[in-house]
Design a protein that fits this description.
With about 400 residues, the protein is mainly beta. Helices cover about 10% and strands about 40% of the residues.
């Protein structure tokens, strides 16, 4: 290049202004490139995750924003279960609670809750045994879930309690309806009648309350006696009919509300509904009645038709344990004509009343010689088996 040409090009370059910057275009292009890189990164990550998954490794996992289903509790399954001395027999599994002796217990999905000989409430689960530091006369649990309930007594009141076994904390504690009038002798103690899903049913001095566990609020559902309501499952309430009568009140009705017009179609004192209220098992409060009227025998009913299902003749004493599902329940049966009072653990099919022996001769139906006269074994109803007289 000669000097004239070089000078000419330099002169033109010096006299040319730079083009104006297109800032909007640059930002847009930059955003486009960034978005493209993110897209490629996501696609590349997905491909890499898929490749790792195929290879059997688990280094990379796509994030799942959907709520995960709750894991079932360690004791969700219902099995043929009983307690004898310091051991809870959960199917073939034996859970020791020594040095405590189980007088009453219930099963929750998270663990077993039991009363020891001094009525102190304990929890037994996979981690061991712990005391709640509370005491009660009986326990109540639903056929599923982690909740247990009881009533604590004080000088001037009772307090109804709902406790979450998995979370190890109380959800409800209330004295509503449970003020004890001075100089009054109550025939029945207050109790938690049932837990039915998110609802608890308290039998209080002022009558039964339906308590919403989520909101910790409740309402009285009827102005009737403390023990008028016997069971609640799947929204169906078992209650005595007539609503007001002296004990023993043994005529029972079932409805969604406590009503004086509901027909009495069943007989019994304690009531145990199957999980969808398809069947009803009833039995007397007293384990051994001296004179046995017709209502004193355990009875099994089809709820829809009120048809009574015959129970096996081979057992002259039968004690309800718990429902395994909507068609089968566990019971303890004393063998008829057995001089040693041999007792079998049974699985009863509700539709037919037929039984299968789950554990033969697991105990004897005898009672302690000093009050309260309690049987040597317990079933997961939350109450001891007692001979009152």
């Amino acid at each position: 290049m000669n000097d004239l040409l070089r000078d000419t090009l330099a002169e033109r370059a010096a006299g040319t202004e730079p083009p104006p910057l297109d800032l909007d275009g640059i930002i847009a292009a930059g955003n486009h490139r960034a978005a493209r890189r993110r897209t490629l990164g996501i696609l590349g990550g997905a491909v890499a995750t898929a490749a790792v998954a195929v290879g059997g490794a688990s280094v990379l996992r796509p994030r799942n924003e959907q709520p995960q289903p709750a894991r079932p509790g360690p004791f969700t399954q219902r099995r043929a279960t009983f307690a004898l001395g310091s051991e809870i027999h959960y199917g073939s599994e034996v859970i020791s609670v020594a040095p405590h002796r189980v007088t009453a217990f219930v099963q929750t999905d998270a663990g077993f809750v039991f009363l020891s000989a001094d009525n102190v409430i304990h929890v037994a689960d996979r981690s061991g045994v712990r005391s709640t530091g509370k005491s009660a006369w009986s326990l109540t649990a639903d056929h599923r879930g982690n909740l247990v309930a009881w009533v604590e007594g004080f000088n001037d009141r009772y307090e109804s309690v709902v406790y979450d076994v998995a979370a190890n904390r109380e959800l409800v504690r209330t004295a509503i309806g449970n003020t004890i009038p001075p100089n009054v002798s109550l025939v029945y103690r207050s109790e938690v009648v049932a837990i039915d899903g998110d609802m608890a049913y308290f039998g209080t001095v002022d009558g039964p309350y339906r308590w919403d566990i989520r909101t910790n609020q409740g309402t009285r559902i009827a102005k009737v006696s403390t023990n008028a309501v016997r069971a609640v499952t799947a929204g169906q309430i078992v209650f005595q009919q007539p609503l007001e009568q002296r004990p023993p009140a043994v005529s029972l009705a079932i409805a969604e509300t406590v009503s004086a017009t509901a027909p009495a179609r069943f007989s019994g004192q304690r009531a145990f509904l199957s999980p969808t209220a398809k069947y009803l098992m009833t039995e007397p409060e007293d384990a051994l009645l001296g004179i046995e009227p017709g209502w004193a025998s355990p009875a099994l009913y089809d709820v829809a038709t009120a048809r009574q299902v015959g129970l096996p003749y081979a057992y002259d004493s039968l004690f309800f344990g718990q429902w395994l599902d909507d068609d089968r329940f566990v019971a303890a049966g004393k063998r008829r004509f057995s001089k040693a009072a041999e007792t079998d653990l049974l699985v009863v099919t509700a539709a037919t009343g037929t039984v299968k022996v789950a554990v033969p001769n697991f105990s004897r139906l005898t009672f302690s010689t000093t009050p309260p006269r309690i049987a040597p074994f317990a079933l997961p109803t939350g109450r001891p088996i007692i001979d009152f007289y």
